[in-house]
Design brief:
Order of helices and strands: EHHHHHEHEEHEHEHEHEE
Strand order of the largest sheet: 4-3-2-1-5-6-7
Number of helices: 10
CATH class: Alpha Beta
Strand content: 5-15%
CATH architecture: 3-Layer(aba) Sandwich
Structural class: alpha/beta
Length: 332
């Protein structure tokens, strides 16, 4: 049985932790028209459907990036280069220090004796290497995002005594693709602890008390309708869902308000994480609420295990309060 002493703050990345899309520095580095690239990507599902192929609209951009690598414009692109470009990503105001401020709540006088802990996770349809290169990564427990393979192993590799690596590395295959539905799988991995203990099959039934992070100890923060599948799981299971928007965008504000009105999220606020901002206040309040509920739960479980202390009873003078003397409970 886990101590279940962890609160997990789970974050989307693009337009949640950064103002735009993480691929922007990549396109700038190679001199590629970003708008044209995404227009091409948006056309691909229809074009492939005309050929009788069904593709994922969330992740087909990965294949198109590999086409750019294979056909020249991005030749030589490596995971290391993606990490380097990730360092250029601009975070929203207040980040990354806000993540430390949330974690520090566990050390407040009210909670410091309970061994509570905050863990931050990122689940994104974007590129894991770029997230790992960003300023926020040192504050993150784990990242679930898309990955590329640079050196695919060759057929019959099990019969080879030594695996050779190409001299000129570049990304050539998709290793992990994350779409907006698969994001829910990673929520369950965090819940069951499968990301910490790889012997745990996320699809295996597990008693609630054995799960590392209960759903009602999770907060999910994201920016839009594409995150509705995760919002739904988190809300249904008792966690907290919060939508953020770019403070400069009236359209994004209206979109996040619609999520609140439809009951998709508990609340919304600007993607401004500076101290005193509405989002900062809401997040800190919810962390404290969860911690207090965890304390109450622990005390209730303790009472259930130990029971009530014995009492002295007397048939004489039933109205006398001294007839029910509770024993000292130092042994409880």
């Amino acid at each position: 049985m886990h101590g279940q002493n962890i609160v997990a703050c789970v974050w989307d990345f693009d337009k949640t932790l950064i103002p735009g899309y993480m691929q922007t520095p990549l396109f700038e580095y190679y001199g590629i028209d970003e708008g044209l690239f995404w227009r091409e990507v948006n056309q691909l599902p229809r074009l492939y459907m005309e050929r009788g192929l069904r593709v994922s609209s969330d992740t087909i951009y990965l294949n198109h990036l590999l086409s750019y690598v294979k056909n020249g414009p991005m030749r030589g692109l490596t995971n290391q280069k993606l990490i380097e470009l990730g360092s250029e990503l601009e975070l929203y105001p207040g980040l990354p220090s806000f993540l430390s401020e949330l974690a520090e709540i566990a050390n407040n006088e009210e909670f410091q004796n309970h061994d509570f802990k905050i863990e931050h996770y990122i689940i994104s349809t974007g590129l894991a290497p770029m997230i790992k290169g960003s300023q926020i990564y040192p504050f993150i427990e784990d990242v679930f995002a898309c990955e590329f393979i640079e050196s695919p192993v060759s057929p019959n590799f099990m019969s080879q005594t030594e695996l050779s690596l190409p001299v000129d590395l570049e990304i050539s295959q998709v290793g992990m693709s994350v779409d907006n539905t698969i994001k829910t799988r990673f929520i369950f991995e965090i819940n069951k602890g499968a990301n910490k203990n790889h012997s745990i099959d996320v699809n295996t039934s597990m008693p609630h008390d054995d799960r590392r992070v209960p759903f009602d100890q999770m907060i999910y923060v994201a920016d839009g309708p594409s995150d509705v599948p995760v919002f739904a799981v988190i809300k249904q299971m008792g966690g907290k869902a919060y939508a953020v928007y770019d403070p400069r965008s009236e359209r994004e504000f209206e979109q996040s308000c619609e999520l609140v009105e439809r009951g998709r999220v508990h609340n919304n606020g600007p993607a401004d994480y500076t101290n005193g901002s509405p989002t900062s206040i809401w997040m800190k309040q919810k962390v404290r609420e969860i911690f207090r509920r965890m304390i109450k739960k622990k005390l209730t479980q303790l009472d259930e295990r130990t029971g009530s202390p014995p009492k002295h009873f007397s048939d004489k003078n039933p109205g006398n309060p001294l007839n029910e003397l509770k024993q000292e409970t130092f042994w409880k």
